[in-house]
Write a structure and sequence with these properties.
The chain has a 16-stranded antiparallel beta barrel with strand order 1-2-3-4-5-6-7-8-9-10-11-12-13-14-15-16. Helices cover 7% and strands 56% of the residues. Strand 3 and strand 4 form a beta hairpin. The protein starts with a helix and ends with a strand. By secondary structure, it is mainly beta. The radius of gyration is 20 Å and the shape is globular. It has a single domain, classed as Porin. This is LbtU family siderophore porin.
């Protein structure tokens, strides 16, 4: 009951467009409140066809700066997830140490493990997102030098109630004139939801993207090492995407296309391939509608699942 009351309060605040920004001078705290609500109508041919209307997600974020060297961000999220024990959770709670715009920062708290890059503007995320998705208690050191960036991080993981910080990863990136190149290493991908393994195994990532005007193309590949508990499998996931910003029926919009695949992942709850095509259109300020088609191919001899999503998204 308490979760329902909190959710109602969050939705009411979003609809009312409440925001608070307290700033007396540069040395006093600054707080910002933002929110998001998404409602989806989905029609699929799975199980002889079905149509559903549902609240997909509600987010409430409070962020700000405590002083010129410390900032924070906290996000509460409701998400319609049949595989989760609770639809309501703290999605992120972090404190960032470092001067805004500086080349060095330290992030402490709970947030997503920064392994997958997940570029692309489709509403439905790619298989690489499912492959690498994981939120944990973490420390992230970020360094920047011109066009180059480096991240090093350590986190706990919850395998076998592990309270020791013995998991780590690193990312390196280059960005200049619209070109982005990156690579990453993670010593334990078995802790992610898709793997769900007590066995620890490493993984690496390579990614690239190029933006020219309103057009962006991107690609990413994630490769895990051998898992003995998965019959020696070495699962991988790849994703390519194309996003084009354009006018859609008299308003700004985005045409997006994404195609992702997995390999050697039969024992994981992931499809073998996923094609997503979407068109979004702004509905005035802070709102948009999205029309999307997805086609997911399973492993084995199962039938592909085709889905059409119509989404209304509002934010403040």
């Amino acid at each position: 009951m308490m979760q329902k009351k909190l959710l109602v309060t969050m939705i009411s605040a979003a609809l009312a467009g409440i925001s608070y920004n307290a700033q007396a001078d540069s040395h006093e705290p600054v707080f910002n409140v933002s929110g998001l609500a998404e409602v989806a109508l989905a029609s699929t041919d799975e199980d002889d066809g079905k149509t559903d209307l549902y609240l997909d997600a509600v987010e409430l974020t409070v962020d700000g700066t405590v002083n010129e060297f410390i900032s924070f961000s906290t996000t509460l999220k409701y998400e319609d997830d049949p595989d989760s024990d609770s639809d309501f959770n703290v999605d992120e709670a972090i404190i960032i140490l470092g001067e805004e715009g500086g080349n060095v920062s330290l992030t402490l708290g709970m947030t997503g493990i920064p392994f997958g890059v997940i570029d692309g503007s489709t509403w439905t995320g790619p298989l690489t997102d499912d492959f690498s998705d994981n939120t944990d208690d973490i420390a992230i050191l970020t360094l920047g030098a011109g066009a180059f960036g480096l991240e090093a991080y350590a986190f706990k993981a919850d395998q076998e109630n592990d309270d020791n910080i013995e998991n780590f990863g690193a990312n390196i990136g280059f960005e200049q004139n619209g070109l982005v190149l990156g690579a990453g290493f993670l010593n334990n991908i078995g802790n992610t939801e898709a793997f769900g393994q007590t066995e620890k195994s490493a993984a690496f990532r390579i990614n690239a993207s190029y933006t020219m005007g309103d057009i962006m193309v991107s690609a990413e590949h994630l490769q895990a090492s051998k898992f003995d508990d998965l019959n020696g499998a070495k699962p991988s996931a790849s994703h390519i995407a194309l996003d084009v910003g354009t006018d859609v029926i008299g308003a700004p919009g985005v045409i997006a296309l994404g195609y992702s695949t997995t390999d050697d992942a039969e024992s994981m709850d992931l499809g073998e391939s996923l094609l997503v095509a979407s068109v979004s259109r702004e509905l005035g300020d802070n709102a948009e509608t999205i029309l999307e088609f997805t086609r997911e191919e399973p492993y084995g001899n199962g039938d592909a699942v085709n889905t059409v999503n119509l989404v209304l998204s509002a934010s403040f």
